[in-house]
Design brief:
18% strand; single chain; 333 residues; Rossmann fold
Length: 333
């Protein structure tokens, strides 16, 4: 049995990283590890501190001597406040000091920004990445970070699906729960609404494919920036008045999310930018095929039943093939 400290956002916060961390903690505890969770005040952690100006990393360094492992779930938006340069420097310095003081620290990199190399916060962040053991979901993500930060990482690959808690629900059960017809093709996009998701690509491909069945986009705006709100408004305009095209603006529960994925014939992730995808991992556990863009680690994360699309026509073909009842990966033939 190991004593493990996990640093992350956590439910009930509506956050994909928090949901992943919750499943990660459950898996560790099921294996017999003694796990303590350090979260922001809105998370149901064992230790709670504000995630500003490096506070979680300083607290982890303070109590970390009692633990065999310290796992930091890293996504910049969790720890680095926007438009706050002094706070960013404090955060990066605190993470660097954590990995120096507690060499058992591992950083699970869910996402990392491209560095601005002259900025002090990125200089400190590069030091932390170079010292710590880094965990990635794909080799593509590892290679991307090593190139961007000019480091040779001490790294391990942790497949995304290993920490996914997906419910056991069949397609027919899911469709019954959602009140959907059993014989109507269903195409699903899911995730937070922002321009990098490129859900409008899926709408365009569905239109070009002849609008078969039904297309549903499920998501909400996490960060209410002008760009994200404008993107949401654009999606609202695209779906307005179109039969069998729906935008569900909500952060749904894990149970409802799993039901929507299980009910779908094809999950479409047409992203412009991504690292890896929790939605894709859940779809793989539930047995729903996906069509994904070849960006970030998605191409590597895609499984044998998924399709990596290179062009807009690839996605049109995938939708048409799915609507005809053929396996999506045959769209590449």
């Amino acid at each position: 049995m190991a004593r493990v400290l996990v640093v992350s956002s956590y439910p009930p916060r509506h956050c994909g990283i928090g949901a992943y961390a919750h499943a990660h903690v459950a898996r560790l505890r099921a294996a017999g590890d003694d796990v303590t969770v350090l979260t922001p005040p809105d998370g149901e952690g064992d230790v709670r501190v504000w995630f500003t100006a490096g506070k979680p990393f300083r607290e982890a360094a303070r109590i970390g001597g009692d633990f065999d492992r310290i796992v930091v779930h890293f996504q910049p938006g969790l720890y680095f406040a926007p438009r706050a340069p002094i706070s960013k420097i404090a955060t990066a310095r605190s993470l660097d000091r954590l990995v120096r003081r507690r060499p058992q620290t591992e950083i699970l990199v869910h996402e990392a920004d491209a560095p601005v190399r002259w900025r002090p916060d990125y200089v400190l962040l590069r030091r932390a990445f170079a010292r710590a053991t880094l965990l990635f979901h794909t080799n593509a993500e590892r290679a991307s970070l090593e190139r961007a930060y000019r480091i040779s990482a001490k790294a391990r690959i942790v497949p995304h699906a290993e920490a996914v808690e997906a419910g056991s629900i069949s397609r027919s059960e899911a469709r019954g729960r959602l009140g959907l017809a059993m014989d109507e093709p269903l195409f699903l996009c899911a995730g937070f609404l922002h321009p990098d998701k490129a859900f409008e690509r899926a709408i365009e491909a569905w239109n070009r494919a002849g609008m078969p069945g039904r297309m549903v986009i499920v998501g909400s705006v996490r960060d209410a920036t002008p760009a994200n709100l404008a993107y949401r408004d654009m999606l609202r305009d695209l779906v307005a008045g179109v039969e069998r095209l729906q935008l569900v603006e909500d952060y749904v529960s894990d149970e409802d999310f799993d039901a929507r994925i299980a009910a779908a014939d094809l999950l479409i992730l047409p992203y412009r930018r991504s690292w890896s995808s929790g939605a894709l991992a859940r779809a793989q556990v539930l047995g729903t095929p996906a069509a994904v863009s070849d960006v970030g680690g998605l191409g590597e994360q895609a499984g044998p039943n998924d399709l990596v699309v290179q062009t807009a026509q690839d996605l049109v073909d995938a939708i048409m093939r799915t609507a005809a009842g053929s396996p999506v990966h045959e769209a590449a033939a």
